[in-house]
Design brief:
heterodimer; A: alpha+beta; Mth169, Chain: A; 3-stranded antiparallel beta sheet; 2 helices; 3 strands; elongated; B: alpha/beta; Rossmann fold; 9-stranded mixed beta sheet; about 25% helix; about 25% strand; globular
Chain lengths: ~80, ~220
């Protein structure tokens, strides 16, 4: 089985990389981009039947820094 | 005073930190990240700068989960002294020994230059060699030094006099100009600037030396 973990900076945490991407889009002529938030996606290949709770535990303990990041687990 | 300096794959300030401590009179043991315990009778653990594990995932995140970091956390939990510099500070926030985290610099650039710092408190083993309010010059060399914590944590750090150093001219966007913070028991210091790179005349300045001299003096009698 596979799981996909989406990690994003929490609302209110400054994302200077997202802001740089927004500026670059603007200089390419893409108007109307109000904001860009950049995150990461981690794909896990897991033993069949792995509980989603275990993936959540992985996120809490390593994959995300919950001081600044939120995560969402998607079981594929 | 016996200090241990932790070495991770990718550490690059470990020997600088060891030399600064030795010059101040400490006995220093180097400890490898796969070790599971500290040498007997260690007074201070140094977590050095560098790019542990290539800064993969997040700066300090992989190092924070290495075997030796359990010993670092246990040492801190027992009331032991820990000094984390640069990547060491990032590792101490990832282990939750210190609150908050270090984000990418607000200007997105890696910054490598000497910067003015204000010693915000002299009330710690790390800063007792300075006078509160003193201005010193120490180099920074980081891409992710933008200190971030929630408003409640920032209020507590200020109210409890736990901000050890502030930037004179905030180079990276850090909240409240924070360059270094102390734990609640004042025995763990994490800071982005590198005092070990400003510890002898050949470095171009000696403003960092007082930290190591002060640490040895205080912990020698502990």
């Amino acid at each position: 089985m596979k799981a996909r973990v989406h990690i994003m900076l929490k609302t209110g945490v400054l994302d200077p990389q997202g802001e740089a991407v927004r500026n670059a889009l603007g200089s390419l002529g893409f108007d109307g981009v109000n904001s860009v938030r950049q995150g990461k996606v981690i794909e896990l290949d897991l033993k069949d039947g792995t509980d989603e709770a275990i993936v959540n535990d992985m996120c809490e303990r390593l994959l995300a820094n919950t001081v600044i990041e939120s995560y969402r687990v998607e079981i594929l | 005073m016996h200090a241990a300096v932790v070495v991770f794959p990718g550490s690059n300030c470990d020997r600088d930190l060891a030399v600064a401590l030795e010059r101040a009179g400490a006995r220093v043991s180097m400890v490898w990240h796969k070790d599971t315990s500290m040498p007997e009778g260690v007074d201070l653990i140094g977590v050095p700068g560098g790019f542990s594990f290539g800064d993969y995932l997040r700066c300090g995140a992989i190092a924070a989960n290495s075997p030796i970091c359990r010993s670092v956390k246990d040492h801190a939990d027992r009331g032991g002294y820990v000094l984390g510099v640069c990547n060491g500070f990032q590792i101490l926030t990832e282990t939750r020994v210190l609150p908050g985290t270090l984000l990418r610099n607000a200007g997105l650039k890696y910054i490598c230059r000497s910067v003015p710092l204000t010693v915000t408190t002299a009330d710690s083993a790390f800063t007792n060699g300075y006078v509160a309010g003193q201005s010193i010059t120490v180099p920074i060399a980081h891409h992710d030094g933008n200190y971030h914590a929630d408003a409640e944590t920032l209020r507590a750090l200020a109210a409890e006099d736990r901000i050890a150093f502030r930037y004179g001219d905030n180079p990276n966007g850090s909240a409240d100009d924070i360059a270094g913070i102390l734990s609640a028991n004042r025995r763990v210091l994490g800071m982005m600037p590198h005092p070990e790179r400003m510890a002898e005349a050949a470095h171009g300045g000696t403003d960092g030396a007082a930290m190591f001299v002060g640490l040895v003096r205080q912990l020698e009698h502990a």
